[in-house]
Amino acid sequence: MASRKQPARGSSGAGENRASGEKEVPIQVMVPETVRRQVALMGADRGENIRTVVLRGLRAIGIDIPESELADRRGRRRNGKGGSDGAQ
């Protein structure tokens, strides 16, 4: 079996992150629908997106997440309204 070189902890692959200069890669996990709903509701209650809620959770278990990564990076329209994730 071929050996795959593992990136250093905290390093990532594609997608440039402006705040830290690190590239970003997608991470996917399958969770029960109730968990997804709770994460979305927690984000809505806090005014955060799901990415930020998940990053805060990872930080809580000891993963090094810089504060700059917790900022909402979604684009905003000129009228001040952002995109919709379907939540109402």
Q: What is the strand content?
A: under 5%
The succession of helices and strands, N to C, reads: HH
Low-confidence stretches: none
Oligomer: single chain
Count helical runs: 2
Number of strands: 0
- What is the helix fraction of residues, given as a range? 25-40%
Main beta sheet: strand number and arrangement? none
- The dominant shape is globular
Distance between the termini: 49 Å
Short key terms for the protein model shown above:
single chain, 88 residues, mainly alpha, 2 helices, globular
Task: Describe the fold and architecture.
This protein is an all-alpha fold and 88 residues long. It has a domain at 25-61. Helix content is 28%, strand content 0%. The protein has 2 helices and no strands. The protein has helices at residues 33-46, 50-60. Helix 1 packs across helix 2. The longest helix has 14 residues, at 33-46. It is globular, with a radius of gyration of 15 Å. The termini are far apart.
